[in-house]
Amino acid sequence: MDPIRNPYAPGAGTQPPELTGRGELLDRARVALERVRLGRPEKSFIAVGLRGVGKTVLLNRVRRMADASGYRTAFIEAHEQKSLPELLVPHVRRILLDLDQRGALSEQVKRALRVFKSFMGTVKLSYGGVDLALDIDPERGAADSGDVEADLPELFAALGRAAVARGVPVALIVDELQYLAEREMSALIMALHRVAQDGLPLMMIAAGLPQVVGLSGRSKSYAERLFDFPAIDALPAEDARTALAAPAAAEEVEFEPAAMEEIIRLTAGYPYFLQEWGYRTWNTAPASPIRRDDVLAATPLVITRLDEGFFRVRFDRLTPREKSYLRAMAELGPEPHRSGDIAERLGTGVQSVGPLRSGLIRKGMIYSPAHGDTAFTVPLFDQFMRRIMPRWPMEAHDV
Ligand SMILES: Nc1ncnc2c1ncn2[C@@H]1O[C@H](COP(=O)(O)OP(=O)(O)OP(=O)(O)O)[C@@H](O)[C@H]1O
Ligand SMILES: [Mg+2]
Fold it and tell me: Are 71 and 32 in contact (CB under 8 A)?
């Protein structure tokens, strides 16, 4: 059918034509935003889910919701190679300058700018910070110790007071939260705890891979009081059907039930895969209704595309030993496995692959669903590993 009218939207963070199954989380976000605006105590949330389940899309919706209700927002994507302060600096600066311009001179806003200037003095910026100059004196001794756990709470408290002074709440929206260093996560939690205690209108809504739950370990008791960790998962069959059928219906196209069920089976309801299968099947099908044969004809094209894109970009970041580890996991099947069983497949002991496993968790490839268990963060990655390394263990590198 006409590819120009193809409604599906495979991609990282691309808004789907129909955002299904996330109503409850969006409602929670709405309530949290409104309560924080009023200075009421409220637990925020960190949505936890595997690759391609729709975390970024959800956060983008939350951001739009916050913008529309008068929040100042910062959308940050945590990054393995960048520090949290470095990521925060341009956003906090933009928000403070905006608050500064929103009315008569405010001592709270000016103080926040001075504290921010102090804070900035401690941050190494990889991009040079050319345009970040601020025409104000730093507040010596505030947020400038260089210890993020001490400085971030001070910065947030100053920012929160500036927000009160202007009657404008602030939302920090953080994606890929699992990439924060442990110390940064702890600093963030302490900073949010501080503003929550003071009833300041500054909140965070975030998302990350399942390892974020463990990452909040050191500040665990604070984290539990501040956040819930709702799971964002594959869509239940009913929502998955709607995700496919509604965009097609808007173009006056239908799916035969058998075609629909085949896609649900192949994708296991994972949003990213639903979009890919929807997209390719649409282009392959000659006319409405879309038939099961169209799905079957499109499937090899989808697999090729996934192998060259979604899976491949992750595979290319791995060392030979890491590839071997994941290949051994794939050999055991898609479900979580005991670390001991994986080591055994590799012909070695759990101790000797410990660092390898930790590295893969840091890279966001695997996580530990329960103590001693290991699972993929990328749905269907086991099948991909078997396709890309078919002759394993013959082609295995030394582990
Ligand atoms: N609720 C949904 N219904 C239908 N499609 C969705 C839904 N949520 C996300 N998608 C689609 O799934 C794909 C992946 O979404 P997104 O990039 O937000 O996932 P993610 O969880 O952030 O993945 P990653 O962990 O790789 O960053 C996009 O193509 C998006 O359009
Ligand atoms: Mg994402």
Answer: no
- Taking the chain (399 residues) in consecutive chunks of 10 residues, what is each chunk's mean pLDDT? 97 93 96 92 92 97 96 96 94 96 92 95 75 81 92 98 96 97 94 94 96 82 88 96 97 98 96 97 98 98 95 94 96 95 93 94 94 94 96 64
- Look at the domain 235-308 and name its fold: Helicase, Ruva Protein; domain 3 (1.10.8)
Q: Is the CB of 300 under 6 A from ligand 1?
A: no
Ligand at shortest distance from the CA of 11: 1
- Please state which architecture CATH assigns to domain 23-228: 3-Layer(aba) Sandwich (3.40)
Q: Could you tell me the distance, in angstroms and rounded to a whole number, from the CA of residue 227 to the centre of ligand 1?
A: 22
Query: 320-388, what's its fold?
Result: Arc Repressor Mutant, subunit A (1.10.10)
Give the domain ranges of the chain: 23-228, 235-308, 320-388
365 lines ligand 1 (CB under 6 A): no
* CB atoms closer than 10 angstroms to residue 136: 14
CA 236 to ligand 2 centroid distance, Å: 20
Is the distance from the beta carbon of residue 19 to the nearest atom of ligand 1 less than 6 Å? Answer: yes
**Which residue has the CA at smallest separation from atom 25 of ligand 1?**
51
Tens-digit pLDDT profile for residues 172-185: 999 999 999 999 99
For residue 313, the CA-to-ligand 2 centroid distance in Å is 14
d(CA 393, ligand 2 centre) in Å: 32
For the stretch 35-83, pLDDT in tens is 999 888 888 899 999 999 999 999 999 999 999 999 999 999 999 889 9
Number of neighbours of residue 171 by Cβ within 10 angstroms: 27
Q: How far apart are the first and last CA of the chain?
A: 49
Of residues 303, 294, 175, 312, the one with CA closest to residue 244: 294
With a 6 Å cutoff on the Cβ, whether 106 touches ligand 1 is no
| pTM, 2 dp | 0.93
- Which ligand has an atom closest to residue 271 CA? 1
Phi then psi dihedrals of residue 210, to 5 deg: -55, -25
Residue 57 CB–ligand 1 contact under 6 Å:
yes
* Cis, peptide link before residue 17, omega less than 30° from 0: no
